[in-house]
# Entry
Amino acid sequence: MKNETIYYARKCSITNEGMNEGWLDEQNLIYFKYAKDVINYIKDCIQYETIKPNLNKMNDDDIIEYGYNHYDIYFTEWECETDFQYKEIKGKIIEL
# Structure
C-alpha cells in the first residue's frame, strides 16, 4: 500500500534507502544494503594495502569474508522496534 509507513533501523550510506538488514563497516559506521556495494567498497579498501590479495582469484564471497576478517565489515539484522531510526512515508525516508 502506497500510504503505508515503513520503519527502518538504518539507512544505506550508498543508496540512502532504508534497511533492516545489510552490511556494516563497524570502524567507520558505513551501512550497505546491497552486496554489490559492499563488495566494491572492500575492493577499494584493498587497493590501499601494501600487500594485496589477488582479487582476480577471489569470488564475491571471498571478498566479503576478507572484509570481515580485515576491516570489521559484517552482515547484520536489526529486528527490535527500539532500533528504528527512520521511517518511510510515500517513498520518502525521514529520520525519527
